[in-house]
Structures are given as structure tokens and as C-alpha cells.
Amino acid sequence: MQLIQHIAFIMDGNRRWAKQKGLPTLAGHQAGYNKMKQVGDWCLARGIKHMTVFAFSTENWQRSQKEVNYLMKLLKTGLTKELPTFKKKGIRLKVIGSRAGLSKDLIQAIDRAEKETAKNQKGTLNIAINYGGRLEIIEAVKKIIRQKKSPANITEELISESVWTAGQPDPDIIVRTSGEQRLSGFLTWQSVYSELFFIKHHWPALTEKDLDEILDDYNNRHRRFGS
Fold first, then answer.
1. One of 14, 34, 41, 60 is an active-site residue; which one?
2. What pTM was estimated for this model as a whole?
3. Cα 215 to Cα 146: distance, rounded to the nearest angstrom
4. Would residue 12 show up in a list of annotated catalytic residues for this protein?
5. Least buried of 22, 97, 108, 147, by fewest C-beta within 10 Å?
6. Following CA atoms 155, 157, 163, 166 in sequence, which dihedral angle do they give, to the nearest 10 degrees?
7. Residue 83's domain spans which residues?
8. What is the reported pLDDT for 224?
9. Is residue 63 included in any domain, yes or no?
10. Quick check: is 172 catalytic?
């Protein structure tokens, strides 16, 4: 059995799930939020210590103002009202993405959540908010330039130390729900050797059995890393 350190999810299909159920779009996002917490517990129970979720992309600003406001409210709730639960479970929270465009109170919630969970060691939850994979690489390059590194010293390791997930293992597995078969700029740098899984279920309909089937499939794959 291969050790799985990091699993990442593109939580797609909240709106489509709601439509199928005859529910408003916002109800789908609430169901997706609840599923995220549930899946986190499933992963921890299976010894997976790092989980990354794609919560809000740089392209999601194009959605209706009502939907964007609701998503931002939901994210803030997760970083404030849920904070005692994360602390009790020993989960470290880290928000990856650009702070540009985020409200002052959401940024304050992010800073507080990251600070108060920084020493937790049972697991790490990365929440990608206002995230884009190319943007992450651009920001990593800017960071390296500010450090005045010479071209000879720019290596893969240096870039890995400069992206938003610095210090964490790259994802072993990336899962996208709802039938779409692309990464949409998710973890562009980190995903080079990730095993990809595309499943038809919408995110709120993901089951524990689905997760176990993904893990079983992963353990049956032979990862050669180019060798």
C-alpha cells in the first residue's frame, strides 16, 4: 500500500446538485460546505494528513454578486465559527490564494485562523480562495526576484519553497467531481506527478465509498515518476 500524504479536491457541481434537487443555488453551496467538513474527517480517519480544497477561483468573481457574497460569507463562517472545532481536532488551517479583492473582515478571519492553528499537527487543511495556478507561479517568481536570487540558484526546490503550499508534500491525488475532466488551474506547479481522478458525482453527493474506491484505485497504480 502506497503512503498517501496529500489529497486535493476540485469541489465541482454544487449548483448542478442543487438544480437536480429542485433547490436554490445557494443551498448547493451550503451542502458543498458541509461535505467538505465530512470528507476532511474521512481523510483524517485514513491517515491522510494534508487536504486541499478549491473553494473559490480567480475566475469565480464573474458569478453573480449575490452568489459571490454568499460564498464569501460561507468561507468566513468556516474560518470563524468552525475555528474551535478545527483547534479541537488539531487541524492546521492555511488559506492559499491572493488576498487582493477579499474583504477586510475575511482577511482578518484568515489571519486569525492561520495564527491560532499554526502549531496543530494532526492534519492540514489548505483552502484555496481567490486562487489561480498561474497566479501562484507568478507570485512565486516575484518572491524570488525580491530575494535577489541569481539565475544559477533558481531550482525546482526554490520554486517549491516559494509557492503558497511551501513546506507541504505535493498532492498524491487530485479528485474532480461532477464529470469535468480538467484541472482548471488547480495546483499547476504541484500537480505534475499527481494521480488524477474524475468522478461523475457532484461534490455534495460524494460518498465515503467513493473515497475508498479512489484510494484503492490509487494503490493499484504503479507510479514510476519517469523512471
1. 60
2. 0.95
3. 41
4. yes
5. 22
6. -160
7. 6-136+171-219
8. 65
9. yes
10. no
